[in-house]
C-alpha cells in the first residue's frame, strides 16, 4: 500500500517568526555573534514578518551564512539551541499548524518539516513538534566545526527535489500528499503534491494560489504547546537530515540591508 505525508515549511507556516533569527540573543550570549549582529537580527525579524524573503534574499542569506558560522563548534550550537528551545520556539508555534499536524497524524500521514534553516535548529524544533522527518540545509563539518561551506541548501526547487527523493524512498503517493508554505520561493515544493495550501502567503504566492485554485489559510494564534496541546505526540522516529542554516545575524544583515535600500530609494 502507498503511504502519504504532509510537508510543512517552517517559518511563518508552523512558527510565527524566522527560526534562524529567533536564536540571535542566545548566540550572542554564547559568544558566537556580536552585539551589532544581534540588533540587526532583531530588526530583521520585524522586516521578515512584514515582507518575507524572496529568492534573491535567500541567496544573500546563503552567502552571509558561509561567512558567519565558519569555525563555530557544532556541539556548542546544539547546546545553545537545546537550552533555549522551549523559551524561544514553544510560545510561537501556531495553534492552527499544531492542529493540522495532529489531524494529519491521526489520518496516518507522516509529518515532514522542509526548511532552508538547518539541522541544529530544525531538528530540535522537529523533535518539539514530534515530526517524523526533517529536510533542511546541510553544512560541511570538519573536526567538529563548521567550515563555512554549504553542502546542500534546502531552498526553492531543491526543496521539491528533496521531497521527490524522499517520496521514492518511503513510497509516498504524492498525489495524496499535502504541502504548506507561506513563500513564493516554495511554489516548486507546493507543486509536487496533490494538496498544496498557501499559509499566510506573501503577495506573490497569494496571486499564484488564486490563479491555480489552491486553498489559502491564515494562521494567527501562536500558542504554547504544553498549555494548549498537553497530549501532543512525541517524535516517533529519528529526523531525516538537514544541517545548519544558523545564519542568525546573516539573515538579519541581509534582510536589514534590503529594507535600508528600500528606505533610501523612497
Contiguous helical run count:
12
Annotated CATH topology: Rossmann fold
Count of individual domains: 1
Name the CATH superfamily assignment.
Answer: HAD superfamily/HAD-like
Total number of β-strand segments?
9
Task: Using the 3D structure, state the CATH architecture.
Answer: 3-Layer(aba) Sandwich
Shape: globular
Proportion of helical residues: 40-55%
Low-confidence stretches: 42-51, 234-266
Overall CATH class: Alpha Beta
What does this structure look like?
The protein is α/β, with parallel strands linked by helices and 266 residues long. The protein has one domain (5-265): 3-Layer(aba) Sandwich (Rossmann fold). It is built from twelve helices and nine strands. It has helices at 19-22, 24-29, 35-51, 55-68, 74-88, 95-106, 119-129, 157-170, 187-191, 203-212, 225-228, 248-265, and strands at residues 5-8, 93-94, 110-118, 133-142, 145-152, 178-181, 195-199, 216-217, 222-223. The strands form two sheets. The chain has a seven-stranded mixed sheet with strand order 5-4-3-1-6-7-8. Strands 2-9 form a two-stranded antiparallel sheet. The chain is globular, with a radius of gyration of 17 Å. The model is unreliable at 42-51 and 234-266 (pLDDT under 50).
Amino acid at each position: 500500500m502507498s503511504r502519504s505525508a504532509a510537508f510543512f515549511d517552517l517559518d511563518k507556516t508552523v512558527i510565527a517568526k524566522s527560526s534562524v533569527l529567533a536564536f540571535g540573543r542566545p548566540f550572542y550570549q554564547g559568544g558566537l555573534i556580536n552585539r551589532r549582529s544581534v540588533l540587526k537580527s532583531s530588526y530583521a525579524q520585524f522586516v521578515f514578518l512584514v515582507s518575507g524573503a524572496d529568492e534573491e534574499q535567500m541567496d544573500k542569506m546563503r552567502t552571509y551564512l558561509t561567512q558567519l558560522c565558519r569555525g563555530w563548534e557544532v556541539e556548542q550550537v546544539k547546546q545553545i539551541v537545546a537550552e533555549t528551545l522551549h523559551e524561544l520556539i514553544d510560545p510561537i508555534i501556531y495553534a492552527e499548524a499544531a492542529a493540522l499536524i495532529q489531524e494529519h497524524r491521526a489520518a496516518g500521514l507522516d509529518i515532514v518539516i522542509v526548511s532552508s534553516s538547518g539541522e541544529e535548529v530544525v531538528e530540535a524544533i522537529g523533535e518539539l513538534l514530534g515530526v517524523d522527518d526533517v529536510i533542511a540545509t546541510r553544512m560541511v563539518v570538519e573536526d567538529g566545526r563548521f567550515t563555512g561551506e554549504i553542502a546542500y541548501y534546502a531552498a526553492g526547487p531543491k526543496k521539491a527535489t528533496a521531497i521527490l527523493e524522499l517520496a521514492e524512498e518511503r513510497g509516498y503517493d504524492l498525489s495524496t500528499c499535502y504541502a504548506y508554505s507561506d513563500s513564493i520561493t516554495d511554489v516548486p515544493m507546493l507543486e509536487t503534491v496533490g494538496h498544496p495550501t498557501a499559509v499566510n502567503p506573501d503577495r506573490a504566492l497569494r496571486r499564484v494560489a488564486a490563479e491555480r485554485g489552491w486553498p489559502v489559510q491564515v494562521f494567527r494564534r501562536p500558542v504554547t504547546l504544553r498549555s494548549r496541546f498537553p497530549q501532543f505526540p512525541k517524535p516517533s522516529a529519528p529526523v531525516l537530515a538537514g544541517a545548519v542554516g544558523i545564519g542568525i545575524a546573516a539573515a538579519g544583515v541581509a534582510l536589514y540591508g534590503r529594507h535600508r535600500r528600500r528606505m533610501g530609494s523612497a
